[in-house]
Design a protein that fits this description.
The protein has about 70 residues and is mostly helical. The protein has one domain. About 80% of the residues lie in helices and about 0% in strands. It contains three helices and no strands. The longest helix has about 35 residues. It is elongated. It starts with a helix and ends with a helix. About 0% of the residues are buried. The mean pLDDT is about 90.
Length: about 70
């Protein structure tokens, strides 16, 4: 009978549980202040530019080496 009582309860929908748990986790997040967010965004953009320049250089060097090796 105890099992029957447990099953008669309406079980929580998986989607409802997902949103409830997500909301709970978002309450635990330590959100950055606006100056921190601006500074970190600038840092990410600068790193992206430097990595892009570096990869463009590696690509150009690889292209030249392959052209040299293949005699094109």
């Amino acid at each position: 009978m105890a099992e029957k009582a447990k099953k008669s309860k309406k079980q929580e929908n998986a989607i409802q549980r997902y949103f409830r748990e997500t909301t709970g986790e978002l309450r635990k997040v330590s959100w950055p202040t606006w100056p921190e967010a601006r500074r970190l965004t600038l840092l990410v953009l600068l790193v992206m530019v430097f990595v892009g320049i570096f990869l463009a250089g590696v690509d150009a060097l690889a292209k030249e080496l392959l052209n040299l090796i293949l005699g094109v």
